[in-house]
Amino acid sequence: MQSMYMHTKMELRLLSRDIIGLFFVFIMPALCFYFFGKLFETQHAEDMQYFNQYIPGMIGIVLFTAGFFIVGLQAVIDREKGVYKRLIGTPVRSVLILQAMVIKGMLAVVVGSLEIILIGRLGLNAPIELNVAQFVLSMLLAASAFISVGFIVARFFHRFHSAMAIGFVTLYPMLFLSGATIPIDSLPSSLKTVSLFIPLRYAVHLLQNGWAGKLFTSSSTWDAVVLGAILVLGIILGRNFYKWDRA
After folding, report:
1. How many domains does the chain have?
2. Cys-Cys with 88: which of 6, 232, 233, 244 at CB 3.0–4.6 Å?
3. Domain of residue 116, residue span
4. What residue intervals traverse the membrane (predicted)?
5. By three-state DSSP, how is residue 40 classified?
């Protein structure tokens, strides 16, 4: 337990110095949320139920950025610096590093999600009407899946610049084609087809169902299957990645 605490403390210290991760998890989603919220507020002020879809959607962006930029990018940086190779032959257990990274990612998700909710309530005067239990369950599955995406990124990209480039390339489709900022129904038919291949689409829809108390309905089944498959893949690759003899 003491080792777990020390490794988690170290990861949180690294997070406090991670300008890129802090920006993409706590600043960029908050600014986008406030901007699009104000834009909607001036155009459709009478339909405040929009926020019951929009808030969980933007929380989905937090999940993606936390998994990619805080977990995945940090793992790539550590490998590029040779951190894992230096751990070969030491008594440090790889599973402790893996667990500390997961805890760091989950804490970032919780803080980022609370930030979005507070901005919605205090900054945009949005109604906060959610099923807390179902939303927490949906967020646990979605957050776990996207933290595992970080390990998938770390498994296939060995250099910071290549991983960062992929992050920028995937960020905009995740932002605009997942239903997080623009409802899927508002997209042209061609982009609706493209959105089927955007993993965040399924997380956003699951979060929206959890928020509305519709988590245990048939409309959530495919979302859970897709996210579950991503989670399993991430666990397999993460276990392989955090073996010092393969770092």
Report:
1. 1
2. 244
3. 2-246
4. 20-37, 57-76, 96-120, 132-153, 165-184, 224-242
5. helix
